[in-house]
Specification:
Blueprint (H helix, E strand, L loop, with lengths): L2 H11 L3 H8 L4 H6 L17 H15 L3 H17 L8 H21 L7 H36 L3
Helix pairs in contact: 4-5, 5-7, 6-7
Amino acid sequence: MEAYQIIHQILEAFKGLPGKLQRITEKSDEWFRSHGREPKTVNPLQSGNVSPLTHYLKFVRLYEAADKGAGKTLNRRVYEELESEFTENLLNTSQKEIQKNFLKEAFEFLKCLAERDFEHATSGELAEIEQECMEVREVANDAIAHLRAIKRIRESENFKI
């Protein structure tokens, strides 16, 4: 999927986003909308602009081309960093609650694996298995984000003057 298509999907899901972006930047709402259209550099008949997301995707692909796994690792680290940063009230979640959620999702995933045969699964069943994997990943990312938040607090306390 191209960057402009990803942005188009986000703009469709969050209808007022260009206007909100305009209010917090010096760019027009149309400038933000244009990133959701095919760029002029690809098709001169279109009115879209190349977005920062396009540059990011090129950068990650360059890393991957230079050394297999480097782009994937870079993208995962950026994701983890942003997930940690954007997770609200993470420190208000107890360690016990994080562990409980993780165990619940892990057991559901293991049950799903035990009951299903990947080789003979239907497309719908494969999608369900994938969803279970994603849910385990989500709660694992919550645990990682919680640990990183605590680590940042401790590091910032060490650097106070």
